[in-house]
From TrEMBL:
Keywords: Copper, Electron transport, Heme, Iron, Membrane, Metal-binding, Respiratory chain, Translocase, Transmembrane, Transmembrane helix, Transport. Subunits I and II form the functional core of the enzyme complex. Electrons originating in cytochrome c are transferred via heme a and Cu(A) to the binuclear center formed by heme a3 and Cu(B). SUPFAM superfamilies: Cupredoxins, Cytochrome c, Cytochrome c oxidase subunit II-like, transmembrane region. PANTHER family: CYTOCHROME C OXIDASE SUBUNIT 2 (PTHR22888:SF10), CYTOCHROME C OXIDASE, SUBUNIT II (PTHR22888). It is an enzyme of class 7 (translocase). It is found in: Cell membrane; Membrane. Gene3D superfamilies: 1.10.287.90, Cupredoxins - blue copper proteins. Residues 132-250 form the Cytochrome oxidase subunit II copper A binding domain. This is Cytochrome c oxidase subunit 2. It is a multi-pass membrane protein.
Length: 353
């Protein structure tokens, strides 16, 4: 009976592990399917360190099994004493030199890639006309959302990072409140966002996100930051440079050429929400709430809810229920169902794509 229970326990454990490992194959989220040069370099380091650890495990287990079989009591008897090797200089050299070599084998590429991936010397490079040669994005982490400013382009957005493919994109990372951590698992990272100092690094995006299941890569906050830490997601859209330039032009024009799906909703939004939320892609970072200029183009409400008008209305009414600790007040009872519907329709129509 006990043997049967042990077998079922083992089977249950393997089944649970299978469920967890099934999540390792999602291109938009998996570090095991790198979609950029930085992610690939980090993945190669992961393979190297895992290979070294596996080698050590195999050698130790092999020595253990040899000793177990060769010197078992039933074969040699109760009184057999194996050859004593205490003080052997050869063995001492072996178990000293081999670990040193393994550490060097891991340390040399680790140090090399640490300095390579930390090289941001080209971040401020300009051409003969004084224009920036590389794209720079200022990332500000807030409770519990992300703001992305493109200082050389004069635009700002939130919750959805848009970048060109096949070139280095440089990031300035800072936090507005508590420590967070910026991480795009499939592309590379992660790096902390601190309140008092700016961290800098770069990423390279090599895969077009439109080919992915949800049309985006998923970004995460990888530092426990409060009750809604697990819901602090952001999305990343990657596209060819020509398409990215068109997006930038549309964002720069959003201040004057905005299409309004519901004028009544726009008026209500300006009365109730404009103090915290901008609806133009032109501007600077520092807003109290996320910039909503591209809200209609996103695939999630508040970073994790379905992008539907019904879910948007629920979010506006009960933001503290869905994402505890965020700074948006509840609007339940402050706006009628008709007013909420009008505001939601207006927001769903905010698009630059």
């Amino acid at each position: 009976m006990m043997k049967g229970l042990k077998k079922w326990r083992l089977f249950s454990l393997l089944a649970v592990l299978t469920v967890f490992l099934a999540g390792c194959g999602q291109e938009e989220l998996s570090t095991l399917l790198p979609a950029g040069q930085v992610g690939r370099d980090q993945f190669n380091l992961l393979l190297l360190s895992s290979g070294i650890m596996l080698l050590v495990i195999i050698v130790v287990v092999a020595i253990f099994l040899v000793a177990l079989v060769r010197f078992r009591r039933s074969k040699l008897g109760e009184d057999h004493i194996p050859e004593q090797v205490e003080g052997s200089h050869k063995l001492e050299l072996v178990w000293t030199i081999i670990p040193i070599l393994l550490i060097l084998l891991l340390a040399v590429p680790t140090v090399y890639y640490t300095y390579k991936l930390g090289d941001v010397s080209a971040m401020g490079a300009v051409d003969e006309d004084g224009n920036a040669e590389n794209l720079v994005v200022d990332v500000t982490a807030k409770l519990y959302w992300w703001e992305f400013e493109y200082p050389d382009l004069g635009i700002v957005t939130a919750q959805e990072l848009v970048v060109p493919m096949d070139e280095k994109v440089y990031f300035n990372l800072i936090a507005a409140d508590v420590k967070h951590s910026f991480w795009i698992p499939a592309v590379g990272g992660k790096l902390d966002t601190n309140v008092e100092n700016v961290n800098k690094f770069y990423l390279v995006f090599e895969k077009d996100s439109k080919d992915l299941k949800d049309g985006v890569f998923y970004g995460k906050c990888a530092e426990l930051c409060g009750p809604s830490h697990a819901l602090m997601d952001f999305k990343v859209k990657t596209m060819p440079r020509a398409e990215f330039d068109r997006w930038v032009t549309a964002m720069q024009a959003s201040a004057d050429n905005q299409v309004v799906a519901n004028p009544e909703g726009q008026a209500l939004f300006q009365q109730s929400c404009i103090g915290c939320h901008a609806v133009s892609g032109v501007g600077e970072s520092g807003a109290q709430g996320p910039n909503l200029a591209t809200f209609g183009d996103r695939n999630r409400v508040a970073g994790f809810m379905d992008h539907t008008k019904e879910d948007l209305i629920e979010w506006i009414k009960y933001p503290q229920e869905y994402k505890p600790g965020n700074k948006m007040p509840d609007f339940d009872g402050k706006l009628s169902d008709k007013e909420l519907d009008a505001i939601a329709e207006y927001l769903m129509g905010l698009s630059v794509e």
